[in-house]
Amino acid sequence: MKTRSAEILKNPVYCLAFGFGSGLSPKAPGTIGTMVAVPFYFLLANFPIWTYALVVVVAFFLGIWVCSKTSDYLGAHDHGGIVFDEFVGYWITMFMAPIGWNWALLGFLIFRLLDIFKPWPINYIDKRLKGGLGVMLDDAIAGGMSALCIQALMILTG
User: Best label site of 43, 64, 143, 150, fewest CB within 10 Å?
Assistant: First the structure.
């Protein structure tokens, strides 16, 4: 993978799919990729909500393309190193969440648990939908479910 690692980092499409290199982590690349998404969330959270939403929607559709191209290059659907889907899933998780490290960490934990264990309908999409859309959509759904959890916790904690 050393040759491929260098090629991945040199190619902007593959580098983005691999979360600027975070997906090259030998252990827990999805978790590392999500960690790298956190500072981007704090940047996004300072924008108006419509800007945040627009960035996430554009990132989702861009992700379909970059994940598809990278999967084709690697010859593997949803290669573990492709973590741009985790970026977008985390940003969806944190949509309209309060800004703060405690909420960012809570969102991180909820999103990672849902992404790892893949309850229905995440597992249904993960098993049946291939290509870039399949790579992106299961994490987008995990992000949506995580966002609902965050919103419910906001209501419960007043």
Answer: 43
